[in-house]
User: Fold this.
Amino acid sequence: MSIIENHQTDGTPFSDNAKLRARDVQVFYGEKQAIYDVSLDIGANEVIALIGPSGCGKSTFLRCLNRMNDTIDICNIQGEILLDGENIYDPKVDVVPLRARVGMVFQKPNPFPKSIYDNIAYGPRIHGLASSRVDLDEIVEKSLQRAGLWNEVKDRLHSPGTGLSGGQQQRLCIARTIAVDPEVILMDEPCSALDPIATAKIEELIDELRENYTIAIVTHSMQQAARVSQRTAYFHMGQLIEVNPTDQVFTTPQHSLTEAYITGRFG
Amino acid sequence: MTNLTHSSLTTREKVEKSMTRRRAAETRFRVYGVASVLFGLLCLVVLFGDILSKGTSAFRQTVIEQRILIDADYLGINAASSDEEIRFANFEGLVKRHLKTTLHPQGRKQRRALYGLVSAGASWQIQNAVLADRSLLGQQVDFTLIADDAVDQWYKHDRPKGYDGHFSAAELEWMNAWVDSGVMYTRFNKLFFTNGDSREPELAGIRGAITGTFLTLMVTFLLSFPIGVAAAIYLEEFAPRNRFTELVEININNLAAVPSITFGLLGLAIFINMFGVARSTPLVGGLVLTLMTLPTIIISGRAAIKAVPPSIREAAYGLGASKMQVVFHHVLPLALPGMLTGAIIGMAQALGETAPLLMIGMIAFVVDVPGFVDDPSTVLPVQIFLWSDSPERAFTERTSGAIMVLLGFLIIMNTAAVWLRRRLERRW
Assistant:
């Protein structure tokens, strides 16, 4: 299958109170183009799911939103991504505070090989968010509570973060991301390495987090997208095919490719 | 069993047939492996056996117990004398007079032979005792005098075989009398570890060499570790990927294979001639060895940095850490154990280096134990080299003894490196 010429995204890619606006984003890995002309709005305090078959570019697009693709030398991005109206790819923008505003949770839990406390405290420390030990303790406790991990680890804050179970580690990573007080949380298949029960806990968590943060989640599981998100964006071979409210995408999709994907004709 | 068709039965037979050949090949391979290991072990046993057989006797020293009257009048000193006066007193004459009066040699030749049975260091033993305690003046004091190296070798190696060596009848009579009356025996050779080098084998020790080695290695470590680690971090994390960086990489890899004597020539030409650093000091030795160890530390440092999983970096970047923060807060602490292991191995290599240090002058005969990095000194491998050249029989066993000490240090350092690596290994 090749890309569709002059494709206009079906549905409602744009919204009124958008936190993040992507306009005509193209991403190249060296000579090879991975993302073609993607324009998408992510609304404030909404959960948007990015779905699509393997290699369709959803993770690549997600990583553009906090400029994580900068760490890859051959990656080249064109277009605009506006966070609260400011283009994050403007040469004047410093990527360090940007990543404090737009946090990321990765596919495989990656806690630092430090204590649970130090894992959470690292972000606030480097950004100067806490002026005293008491402040830091407060931030750590609040983050762990918001991530639903406080009760399980409050007695062992100084034990190593790597000693927790997979699901707990992922919640630790979420708490770590929350500790720097971001506005947007990007999640790149956060549950794919976890068992169903841990997954359920995290999905519950995402729903609670929606109150305070804007969340974009890449997922391979359509059921998960259906459970946690309000809007869903379907990517296919680097193009954004359709964006619609979640229940519409999964019951009456507009585009034939979307329908083919959700009915399992290709993965 | 299901009904097999004709063709699959043949396949089974084919596989069975090939099994004989394959099992034979596996057995052969295992036999070769075991044979090689055994051969290696055999060589190791022969090597160590040879060194141990020659060297263990170096740790025992023959002594002669004598009760000597410290005649203050003869020496011309008293309890109030200054240290200088005591040092100038004729303790040598005192020892000779004691021997003459107790054993009655006949004629000048016999007298000289008798005096030669006791080490020249005996007079210093008495002198040091008096310096420490002046109340010994005028007393009969028991001393354990060190025997001359010829006597030492005769007692340790010749006498057990019933061989008389080059001694005259009179000498043998005296020596056997000492042995039989129990005043001549061997004890642990403390002087080997407390004395510096000496022309007299019975007084020669490795303390100067060990101190020199320690100071040299300290200079080497203090210079090469920080520079090596910084270079590894720069090359791995910050350097742009261009032709110039590639050139630097190639050169570092090549330097690791350069013969070490070249570094000695470099040290001679640049450090000693151009910069005027004093020759034969741990400072210049350390500088030369730093140049030699740097490639090893840089290469192992880079490998340690590469081994840090990218997920940790991503997590740190994702939180908004700057590049410096990612490198120094996360990558470096995780890479440090590997770097340290590489450094210890580099140090163990430097410990055994002789050729470059010969070029910068450490071949000199240095008696004094060096105090600090700018005192002339020698190192253990060079000491071994110098002793192996000496004609006296006693130096043969001391050479092997020093080799044992050197091997001991190497084994300890390499074991420490392995233990450290095991202990700090992490499971991601």
User: Anything to note?
Assistant: The interface with chain A takes residues 241, 309, 311-322, 325, 329-330, 334, 426, 428 of chain B (CB under 8 Å). The longest strand of chain B covers residues 60-69. Residues 237 and 376 of chain B are 41 Å apart (CA to CA). The mean pLDDT of chain B is 89.
